[in-house]
Specification:
The complex is a heterodimer of chains A (736) and B (233).
Chain A (H helix, E strand, L loop, with lengths): L9 H6 L4 H11 L5 H11 L1 H4 L4 H4 L9 E3 L6 E6 L2 E9 L1 H6 L1 H17 L4 E11 L7 H19 L3 E8 L8 E11 L14 E6 L9 H4 L20 H16 L3 E6 L4 H12 L3 E5 L12 H6 L5 E6 L4 H10 L3 E9 L3 E6 L2 E7 H6 L28 H8 L9 H4 L10 E3 L6 E4 L6 E7 L2 H6 L1 H18 L3 E10 L6 H21 L3 E7 L3 E2 L2 E2 L3 E10 L15 E6 L10 H5 L13 H16 L5 E4 L4 H11 L5 E3 L8 H6 L6 E6 L3 H10 L4 E7 L3 E4 L5 E2 H16 L4
Parallel strand pairs in A: 4-5, 9-12, 17-18, 24-27
Antiparallel strand pairs in A: 1-2, 2-3, 3-6, 4-6, 7-10, 7-11, 8-10, 9-11, 12-13, 14-15, 15-16, 16-21, 17-21, 19-20, 22-25, 22-26, 23-25, 24-26, 27-28
Chain B lengths: L2 E5 L6 H12 L4 E4 L11 E4 L19 H11 L3 E5 L1 H8 L6 E3 L7 E9 L15 E8 L3 E3 L2 H9 L3 E6 L18 E5 L5 E4 L17 H14 L1
Parallel strand pairs in B: 1-2, 1-3, 3-4, 4-11
Antiparallel strand pairs in B: 5-8, 6-7, 6-9, 9-10, 10-11
Helix pairs in contact in B: 1-5
Classes of the chains: A alpha+beta (736), B alpha/beta (233).
Chain lengths: 736, 233
């Protein structure tokens, strides 16, 4: 291993992912050549993943405040007030690169990391969600990646003991060499018992808790800040190994010492491990930190300072404890069989000092380590936006029935049961609405309050028009929460893009962020936490721009939540919102016509809000029996999903004359919902909609066991179910 | 009812179980740490809940079975005390010798979480007096290793002595491989020991005791136990 006093060469700087001008910045900042350990620390703190150096300037445009926001971005997770003295703590984070290299451990530690972010703040995790993007099904690695990622997410969450209640899975060739694994965790805490990272008080002991430090994950954050090439799999040793058992113990121990009021500050060791957590605690509290690495519990012998500072071993925490409670805290940790060691103290010096074997290995200004990180205003260009597609010139399918049968068995629209049955989605005994609906609903404690949650984004819209795509991702998330009857409160955003040094990628990023900001403002739906993942490229080919949005909403009474399944035969089916037959960027266009083109459907945020508020009021009044938002695949796919969820069919009127039939059934106009009401109440609902200035159309009624559009071949619901359920298991079994 | 719920490191359904016992019996159970050598005085039911005790490392339930508290449980069971093991609890009871057989990995080698149907084979046990024999209930499973197996002689004895209490079945009670999600031999979902006072089962009746959260099909087991204990007292 390298000694600490090696000559820092340009090659060594480059190996640490630092550009020459960034290295110059280091020299200017400390006025001398850094030690090797210091170089490692800078590389960990100044990489894209930790410093947000390309994105920060744009993220400032996101709305982050609302009366119910307790903590916005900048802490381990966002915190919102959900009433009755309770707070919801949540965040989404990516683990893309590790999951491609080693899918099981990459995905598992992604879940572990996000859970730690949530319970570090004093919250007990009550649900996990995810958003997964895989390459084309026929790509030779896809099956292996799906299998490993799903098993990893389940393996960690199931063992930790948190229900994984919702998520999304998509396939597209643009993710062939660079899959996306975005994991979200939601926790519950008492509003006045939230814990933060900022240390306070000089001479306070800094305590290391949890698992021992090993050589795994060294430079993980740097890896996440570079593109992939054909040799990326050689980076496997940088992927951490997860131990959900230790994390479960860490959770229980942390919550126990928090309840005993032992903790001043707490920070989990995630990306950039000990380096990032220690500097953050000091810098946020305007204090210096001195660490003595001889005290750090190590899994392996002979670890150098450099390795300890950069290790990303999992299930570790750093805390500042109240000195008089140290013994009590230690006893709790010992009871749970976890390591507990005082590894340093806070100082008045504003320096970050790392000692090992009595020698100073690093001595750096603590504030500037984070604050002086480079910040770039990278050039960006907006590519020309494709023109809208005229639905009239898009070829109609053989028949509407044939097209429906094909669409519901496509990789993006088929049932994802194969995935979510590998996740324990009921542990906790509070899962009111399980995976498969618009949003999951989880009871809060013993009720009656409930939380709704979902993850959404439509990358093909973002690619065609980043601004509209950004808006749409937020709007769809808001709509899904609304469709179960929840009041949407806030989001976490996980922004996955390609190489920001390319102006067209930066253009996608800027456009999407602006779109997100616009929708968040219009819908009163602030961003409280998030994560940026750039350099999602392999051999110069970028992923589709994928700003995953994770949203949380609240229901005063979980028993009032609506679900997608038809409830009864003979009820009226109505669609809320305008159907113009927008086929540009639709699943129909892609899957049936093999064309990925046109402008995506525009999102009118005023309409979105009016229609959504109308639907939510209907749900809370108990006026509707089933509700489903209309998204991928359009109106007929939405109706089919409601039928398949219940086994009850639908008799539907023919498409109106002024919209081409296939555009009417499969167009992806936004701000729409399908609802059902007892037949006798349909007129009253229509009148109510008129008063609210919301467009509502009666399109048919629930009936029999087939989907029967007037003038078309009827399709058995059972057969549709069979088709939608068959694709994924048969693909995974290698039959497809 | 004076129930004791065992807590091993890595157990994670103890809170679900405690809530269900409270809801169905009106009494708060004692939570008993694995390092204890005694059960609380007056304990009349021991529940070994689900989860991943010791991370399920080595073999599911193997480490927990050797915890100090399990000696107390063995003594309790030997005196005829009622013991219920669910999921990881079933695995722990098998590993600790209180029940025969083992739970192997699910036939498809994947973790499975879904509602399944169980045929209740007998109603004349303290665990199933809340059901009718032949009744079918819907309860969830959530396990990667629930595939029950034992040697031929043991299975023959279990069957011969009527010790198979729950079997995976179709919604109308047919025993059919299509409805046996983990491949357990003879579709076995739950068994009792020879004395009938120790029950181990893979599914989670404790997660189906409220109409708004799944269903109430699991309630009969706990209500029946409460009733049995009341009569015995």
């Amino acid at each position: 291993m390298l000694a600490n006093n090696v000559k820092i060469t340009p090659e060594l700087v480059a190996e640490h992912g630092l550009k020459p001008d960034e290295y110059q910045r280091i020299l200017d900042l400390i006025g001398r050549e850094p030690t090797l350990t210091e170089l490692g620390i800078f590389s960990a703190m100044w990489n894209e993943h930790c410093s947000y150096k390309s994105s920060k300037v744009h993220l400032r445009g996101l709305p982050t405040k609302a009366p119910w926001v307790i903590q916005g971005p900048g802490e381990n997770a966002g915190v919102i007030d959900i009433g009755d003295g309770l707070a919801c703590v949540f965040k989404m984070e990516s683990h893309n690169h590790p999951s491609y290299i080693e899918p099981y451990q990459g995905a598992a530690t992604g879940v572990g990391g996000i859970l730690r972010d949530v319970f570090t703040m004093g919250a007990r995790p009550i649900a996990c969600l995810n958003a997964l993007s895989f390459g084309a099904p026929d790509h030779p690695k896809t099956r292996h990646l799906v299998s490993g990622v799903v098993a990893g997410i389940g393996g960690y969450g199931n063992s930790f003991g948190v229900p994984t209640v919702a998520g999304s899975v998509r396939f597209h060739k643009r993710y062939d060499g660079n899959i996306l694994v975005n994991a979200m965790a939601v926790g519950l805490a008492e509003k006045d018992k939230i814990f933060y990272a900022a240390a306070s008080g000089v001479g306070m002991p800094i305590v290391y808790l949890g698992s021992k430090t090993g050589r795994d994950g060294i430079h993980g954050a740097s890896m996440a800040s570079a593109e992939f090439d054909d040799n990326s799999e050689e980076k496997r040793p940088t992927v951490q190994v997860g131990d959900p058992f230790s994390e479960k113990l860490l959770l229980e121990a942390c919550l126990e010492i928090m309840a005993k009021d032992c903790v001043i500050a707490i920070q989990d060791m995630g990306a950039a491990g000990l380096t990032s957590s220690a500097t953050e605690m000091g810098a946020k509290g305007n204090l210096g930190v001195t660490l003595d690495l001889d005290k750090v519990p190590c899994r392996e012998e002979g670890m150098t300072a450099y390795e300890m500072m950069l290790s990303e071993s999992q299930e570790r925490m750093l805390m500042v404890l109240k000195p008089d409670k140290e013994k009590e805290a230690e006893a709790i940790f010992r009871k749970w069989g976890l390591d507990f060691a005082v590894v340093g103290e806070t100082t008045p010096s504003m320096r970050f000092i790392v000692k090992h074997h009595g020698e100073v290995m690093a001595d750096l200004p603590i504030k500037q380590l984070g604050d002086s990180a480079p910040e770039y205003k990278r050039p960006f260009v907006s590519l020309e936006k494709p023109a809208p597609v005229d639905a009239g010139v898009i070829e109609p399918p053989g028949s509407i029935a044939d097209a429906l049968e094909r669409l519901i068995a496509t990789p993006d629209l088929c049932s994802k049961r194969w995935v979510w049955e590998q996740y324990d989605h009921i542990i906790g005994g509070n899962t009111v609405q399980r995976p498969g609906g618009d949003a999951a609903v989880v009871r809060v404690l013993d009720g009656p309050k409930g939380l709704a949650m979902t993850t959404d984004v439509t990358p093909r819209y973002c690619e065609a028009n980043p601004f509209e795509g950004g808006k749409q991702a937020v709007a769809e998330c808001w709509r899904n929460l609304t469709a179960v009857g929840a009041t949407p409160l806030a989001i976490t955003d996980n922004l996955n893009f390609g190489n920001p040094e390319r102006p067209e990628i930066m253009g996608q990023f800027v456009g999407c962020v602006r779109g997100i900001a616009e929708a968040c403002k219009a819908l009163d739906f602030p961003v409280v936490s998030g994560n940026v993942s750039l350099y999602n490229e392999t051999n110069g080919k970028a992923i589709l721009p994928t700003p995953s949005i994770g949203g949380v909403g609240v229901l005063a009474d979980f028993k009032k939540s609506a679900s997608i399944a038809f409830k009864k035969k003979g009820e009226a089916i109505l669609v809320v919102g305008e159907t113009t037959g927008w086929l540009g960027q639709s699943i129909y266009l892609r899957e049936i016509c093999a064309r990925e083109e046109g402008a995506p459907p525009p999102v009118d945020l005023t309409e979105e809000k009016e229609n959504g508020d109308f639907v939510r009021a209907l749900i809370l009044d108990g006026a509707v029996s089933a509700v489903h938002d209309v998204s991928d695949g359009g109106l007929l796919v939405a109706v089919a999903e409601m039928a398949m969820a219940s086994g009850i069919g639908a008799r539907l009127d023919a498409a109106p004359d002024d919209v081409p039939e296939h555009a009417y059934w499969f167009g992806e106009d936004q701000a729409r919902y399908v609802v059902t009401v007892p037949a006798g109440e349909a007129d009253a609902l229509t009148a109510r909609a008129r008063d609210a200035n919301v467009p509502v159309w009666r399109i048919g009624e629930t009936a029999g066991a087939t989907i029967a559009i007037s003038g078309q071949r009827a399709i058995e619901v059972g057969e549709l179910t069979e088709r939608t359920e068959r694709w994924l298991p048969s693909y995974m079994a290698g039959e497809g | 009812m004076k129930a004791a719920v065992l807590v091993f490191p890595g157990i994670n359904r103890e809170r679900d179980m405690a809530r269900t016992l409270r809801l169905t019996s009106g009494h708060e159970p004692a939570m008993v740490w694995h390092a204890e050598h005694e059960l609380p005085a007056g304990t009349d039911l021991v529940v070994v809940p689900g989860g991943f005790s010791y991370g399920d490392y080595l073999r599911c339930g193997a480490i927990a079975a050797r915890s100090p508290v399990m000696d107390a449980v063995r003594k309790f069971a030997a005196k005829g005390g009622l013991v219920l093991g669910v999921c990881n609890g079933f695995q722990i009871l098998c590993e600790s010798g209180l029940l025969p057989g083992v739970l192997m990995r699910n036939e498809n080698l994947r973790f499975i979480c879904r509602d399944v149907f169980l045929k209740v084979e007998r109603s004349d046990t303290p665990f199933t007096r809340g059901y009718n024999a032949g009744q079918v209930i819907r309860v969830p499973v959530a396990h990667g290793e629930g595939n029950y197996i034992a040697d031929g002689e043991t299975i023959a004895r279990l069957e011969g002595e009527g010790r198979v209490i729950f079997r995976y079945s179709s919604p109308d009670g047919m025993i059919d491989p299509d409805w046996n999600h983990n491949g357990a031999i003879n579709a076995i979902a739950g068994i009792v020991n020879d004395r009938g006072n120790v029950l181990g089962m893979m599914p989670h009746p404790e997660n189906h005791v409220e109409a708004e959260i799944g269903s109430t099909d699991g309630r009969g087991l706990f209500a029946g136990l409460a009733e049995a204990l009341k009569r015995a007292a």
